Amino acid sequence: MQILKRLLRWILVLAFTGLLLGVAAIGVAYWLISPRLPSVAVLKDYHMQVPLRVLSADGKLIASFGETRRIPVAMGQVPDRLKHAVLAAEDASFYQHPGVDWHGIARASWHVLASGGDKGSGGSTITQQVARNFFLSPEKLYSRKLTEIFIALRMESELSKDQILELYLNKMFLGHRSYGVAAAASYYYGKTLDQLTVAECATLASTFQLPSLVNPLNSPKRMTARRNWVLGQMLENRFISKAEYDQAIEEPLDASPHEPAIEVDAPYLAEMVRLQVLDRLGNDALTEGYVVKTTVNSMRQQAAVDSVRAGLVEYDHRHGWRGPEAHQELAAEAGTDELERALAGYTDISGMQPGIVTQVSPTEASVYLANRDEVKLDLASVEWARPRIDDTRVGATPKSVATVLKRGDIIRVTRDEKGEWLLTQIPGAQGALVSLDPEDGSLQALVGGFNFLRSKFNRAVMAARQPGSSFKPFIYSAAFERGFTPASIVNDAPLALPDPSRPGGLWTPSNDDDKFDGPIRLREALVQSKNLVSVRLLDAIGVRFARDYATRFGFSLDSLPGNLSMALGTASVSPMSMARGFSVFANGGYLVTPYFISEIDDRDGKPVYQANPARACRTCAERLLDTRPPGPPPANASAAPGNTVATAGSAGSAPATSGSLAGVGDAVLPADAHGDSAHPPVLAPQVIEVRNDYLVTSLMQDVVKRGTGAAAAKLGRTDLAGKTGSTNDHRDAWFVGFNSNLVTSVWVGFDDFGSLGKGEFGAKAALPIWMSYMGTVLKDQPAGILPMPPGITTVQIDRSSGLPAGADDTNVMSEYFKVEDVDRLRNQANQQQEDQDQQHAYDIF
């Protein structure tokens, strides 16, 4: 008995000593580690990485950028069933323990001893997992585990249980780039948290353990087993009833990928936004949850996308069927597996679905689609598919489906407006559209190509193409500055000029139709797009003057050729720069700078940037008090994107800027006005006189009414003006047009500068796209016409001479003039009357 008492005493002494040593060891460990423990206070205001979101002007999602998917939620937004599922799966006693589950640690320790050092999983509470994920590495080290315990205890003393659980539910990785339960619910189920069923909550809770291996998409069998175990734990902990358990167990695992619903088709714009925001905010732009609001309206953007695609398809169909994208020899007994393998490398392109022809007869073809549907194409569905011969020729209209399609052909099909299936093909030509508000340069719509996935090159801002005749209005404006009038007579006749670089040493420009009309008024010359008149006009005013003058419209001097070919549009321009230049005509003579970001908000919805762009502001008080004459833009006309364009202290004037940031063209970030509630308007520089603007615009209105752009008259509007453009060998087709509220430029061409084909002028290839877009966005909108400015008058002129008509003249018409030109022209008319043989003063050749 004495021996037992002595043994018991030694056991108690040893146990007490061990306890003291253990406490001392823990104390020493804490003393050594505590100086290196991170401050838990940072978790109270911790910012999760949240992607950058880009919205349209009407609040619709354009794009989301970031490496992670995350939607931060507060605990109040987490339904109890999801909260309970996570607790049942990871830490049922979370609300009872002090941050460390000593029983769990004891079990894990025993496992290490029993297994000879195997550091298996287990023993970590939710608090410890939060500590590890925020502050530590995942390495399985005893020192890391001890540090994790100390941080967990400190967290429990400084944070509430709900704060810790909120961090856990938002921070943890749950597979497929999804971080946090809200992002996982959105990706796997396309639902918000409050829409999840009990079974779906258990599935998400099951993903915490091994998210990369066991998630609803990668391993459905293992996930189902894990989910059912979690449901059992929920039942055992009385988080759900037996009836809820039975219902959840029977629910199928129906998860599937759900990307964020892109509501606006504007990928080219999205990339421009990404570049500009990165330039302004740095790399944090993609992780700090910024929301960028653009100036683009979703309805206008969709109209632009639809118009460009339809126009390119229409052009493509005019030039015939190029044949299938590929051909796959099919065995007679080929099944769906073989068909799907044949289509594996093909994806939907702008609504053009890939398919493989499985059966063909003279009247019908069967096509198996990549989405496993099977459709029929009859003769009417392929009748456009005349075989392409070359750029200008196509074969006969097919009389049999079998002459177009063969079994094994991989083709594209699409639905028409009636839902009928049609044969189609991806257009070889490309196009671009830019639409601006001429009041302040805000981008209203932008399309950089047929399909962003096929080609990310943004032709709207990055292309350097020749504008052809669409550049002529700038030459005419320069001529009006030098004293010419819409009624001035210039000779439309053959011309030969020395040019050593050409065969024979002569440059002999011609009109598109190779016809000449002799002496012609400038109004008629622009309406009919007479090339030789433009060359003579440029020669009369001087290339140097015209080149400098064109920079008033935002064109760089380097983009403008220093010779007479400039009259025919041989400059290098983008659709955005053309839209910007025509904005000067649309707004009364002011050079605005394109921009597309109106506001940037932080994750809390507070603005960190608000655009204050330079405006035409024709009727505002500041403009009325501005007495500076029109002229070239200020000398300091360059500002780096993202910097202030103009401030209230710059005498109310904004320099004309041209973006130096690659990929955004002429667009810049205007001056930042956030936090300044009383900022005055920034005035865009007036670069041409309003009367000059009015005269050029009146000429372009006639282009639309009865000239090369006459097809636009079908829109039934009286406020439209514009100019067609074509280049040598039909490499480029343009139409740039406007009213006082909207300017839109459209370009069509091949990226390799190939010919669009004979007859593919701007009026045929580009104007229909412009008409489709403008007809949609201007529908039911009031006319936008600038009023006739002071100093402009109308005079009856002789149609032949362009001079004021005499009392006996019958061949007369009304024409606009600057008032100071009228007396001079009347004197000229009187002088002509005195000497009929005198050559017209304005017949320059």
Tell me what you see in this structure.
The chain is of the alpha+beta class. It is built from 25 helices and 27 strands. The strands form eight sheets. The chain has a six-stranded mixed β-sheet with strand order 2-1-5-18-19-21, covered by helices on one side. Strands 6, 7, 8, 9, 10 and 11 form a six-stranded antiparallel β-sheet that branches. The longest helix has 32 residues, at 2-33. The protein is elongated and about 150 Å long. Residues 637-659 and 837-842 have low confidence and may be disordered.
Quick overview:
With 845 residues, this protein is an alpha+beta fold. Helices cover 34% and strands 15% of the residues.
Write the layout of secondary structure elements.
Elements: H1 2-33, E1 52-55, E2 61-65, E3 69-70, H2 80-90, H3 102-114, H4 126-135, H5 142-158, H6 161-171, E4 178-179, H7 181-189, H8 198-206, H9 220-236, H10 242-250, H11 267-281, E5 291-294, H12 298-318, E6 326-327, H13 336-342, E7 353-360, E8 364-369, E9 374-378, H14 379-382, E10 409-415, E11 421-424, E12 430-436, E13 443-447, H15 459-462, H16 472-481, E14 489-492, E15 497-498, E16 506-507, E17 518-521, H17 522-527, H18 531-541, H19 543-550, H20 575-587, E18 597-601, E19 607-612, E20 614-615, H21 621-624, E21 671-672, E22 682-683, H22 690-706, E23 721-726, E24 732-739, E25 742-749, H23 762-765, H24 767-777, E26 792-798, E27 812-818, H25 819-834
Parallel strand pairs: 1-5, 3-4, 20-22
Antiparallel strand pairs: 1-2, 5-18, 6-10, 7-8, 7-10, 8-9, 10-11, 12-13, 12-25, 14-17, 15-16, 18-19, 19-21, 23-24, 24-25, 26-27
Helix pairs in contact: 2-8, 2-9, 4-5, 4-6, 8-9, 9-10, 12-24, 16-18, 16-19, 16-22
